[in-house]
Amino acid sequence: MKLLYRLLVYFAIDAAVFAFAFIFYPQGGAAAYMVMYCLILLLFNLVFFQIEHAVFLKGLKNLSDALGKTAKGDYKYRIAGSHRDPFVQKMSDNFNAMAAAVETLENTTESFISNTSHELRSPLASVQSFLTAVLDGTAAPAEREKYLSVALSETKKLSEIVGSMLDLSRLDAGNFHLNLEEFDLNALISESLLKFERKIQGKRIALHIDFYTEPCAVFADKTLIEQVIVNLVDNAIKYSPENAPLRVSTDPAGDRVALSVSDKGCGIDKEEQRLIFEKFYRVDKARTPGKNSGTGVGLALVKKIISMHGQTITVYSEPGEGSVFTFTLERC
Question: Does the structural domain 180-330 have CATH classification 3.40.50.80?
Fold first, then answer.
């Protein structure tokens, strides 16, 4: 467009020069016309260059100012509008994209630090409180075992929080490679459920396993999928009342297989269903205190693992009716 614009201007100058020469110098020859043409053309180029140079410098100044603001911590600043020079426009677009990425990273870091501090503060305070009561004699001898048991439970929770955050951070780093292999999903489900035998018996939960085919070969990272199953089953048990049913099933879904974990727990509100896969989000914290409160990291980790496999995870839930979490895997 700039080249076409210049050509049009040159043609206009040609016409103006010859019209000017013809009117004021009707007796002039070709040499006079050429000299006048060259002088006007030179003048035009000098003016055009100065204008373009000023515009270019203004664009670079805007970019320099934007970089200065970003260097001082203003990650919300953006270079607005468009620029006539394509090079400056490209640099401006790249700067805006960089600033947006830096702002997102900064917000994520601040949120991570804030949420991590909050999540670790509560169990640490409990451990300190109970151990202090045992050591200074505030706790009666008969209660010391109970206090130590609670302190041990809180340290296990701390270990779970830290472990989940490290796993999620490792996956978020983007340099983790899936160890894809073919394995029997049904066998993995059965092995994972064995880990919850005591919890299931303790709450007298009625476990139902429904496999649509035997065996069920899938292609995925076996270790990570086991983490997904363990997280979903653990949540289902945690939020289920005693004597409630719990169902784990597989179903065909085209060239994929769908694994569902269903419970009859308290359920999840529609508005909260959009947020449950966010880091550190816990459903109705006031309603799930103490031993039933999760870390707020498990479902975020589940979502990340399934997304890395190029698959989907969904939740269907009604308050008071329970929840169904379903994710898909590539079938062999």
Answer: no
